[in-house]
Design goal:
about 120 residues; about 80% helix
Length: about 120
């Protein structure tokens, strides 16, 4: 396995772990809204921008599907993070669970695509 492929596989594993962490935090119920919800709004906007940018970036033909999955997951997670401060406090946990599930799914799909390319 080439070092670049191994690095991509490692990145997808990190995303999977981040998604699992979000799910665990949401299930534990120990997550509250920050005192400054503008930070969550900015994070959501940055994630959406990052996803759109990843979608518009030219990718080699073999990596286009992986780039689309990466971009879509960033946009969905960004929209969920952006919605957290706009909804009642009780709705933050389900949004975090959904965001975590999206990241776990992205990590699994991305890993499968990386392994398939080798």
């Amino acid at each position: 396995m080439k070092p670049a492929m191994l690095f991509r596989l490692f990145n997808e594993f990190i995303v999977l772990l981040l998604g699992a962490l979000l799910i665990v935090l949401a299930l534990s119920g120990r997550v509250g809204l920050p005192t400054r919800p503008i930070a969550l709004a900015l994070l959501g906007l940055v994630l959406i921008y990052w996803g759109v940018r990843a979608l518009l970036r030219a990718e080699p033909e073999g990596g286009r599907q992986q780039a689309q999955i990466r971009a879509a997951s960033l946009v969905v997670v960004g929209a969920l993070v952006l919605a957290i401060p706009m909804l009642p406090v009780g709705d933050a946990d389900p949004l975090l669970e959904i965001a975590g599930a999206v990241l776990v799914l992205r990590g699994l799909l991305g890993s499968l695509l990386v392994m398939r390319r080798t």
